[in-house]
Amino acid sequence: MDDLNSSEVPLMPAEITSTDEFVGLSETAHECRVKRSKDLVKLKLRTPSQLYTLKVKVDRADDVIKR
Predict the structure, then answer these.
(1) How far apart are CA 40 and CA 47, in angstroms?
(2) Predicted pLDDT of residue 66
(3) Which of 30, 54, 56, 57 could be cross-linked to 22 through a Cys-Cys bond (beta carbons 3.0 to 4.6 Å apart)?
């Protein structure tokens, strides 16, 4: 089995709580996914080094996506 290097992609996504930080990270992201449930929307950003997630209420999700 190979040894893990610190330069490899982390296995777990990082959860963000700030919408401003999420919008800033979106500039370098390759992909943005939107997962909608009944009362929560999970936004996922794939950057070259990390997967970031942001959980917001349904009524705030469209505002964050437009930014």
Answers:
(1) 23
(2) 83
(3) 54
The pair phi, psi for residue 50, each rounded to 5°, is: -155, 155
Cα–Cα separations (whole angstroms), residue 54 to 8, 21, 28, 66, 67: 23, 10, 16, 15, 14
Hunting for tokens 């290097």 — which residue is that?
5
Write down the architecture of domain 14-66 according to CATH.
2-Layer Sandwich (3.30)
**Tens-level pLDDT at each residue, the chain (67 residues):** 455 555 665 578 899 999 999 999 999 999 999 999 999 999 999 998 899 999 999 989 888 888 8
- Domain ranges across the chain: 14-66
* Residue 45 dihedral angles phi and psi, to the nearest 5°: -115, 130
Please identify which residue in the block is written with the tokens 């437009």.
66
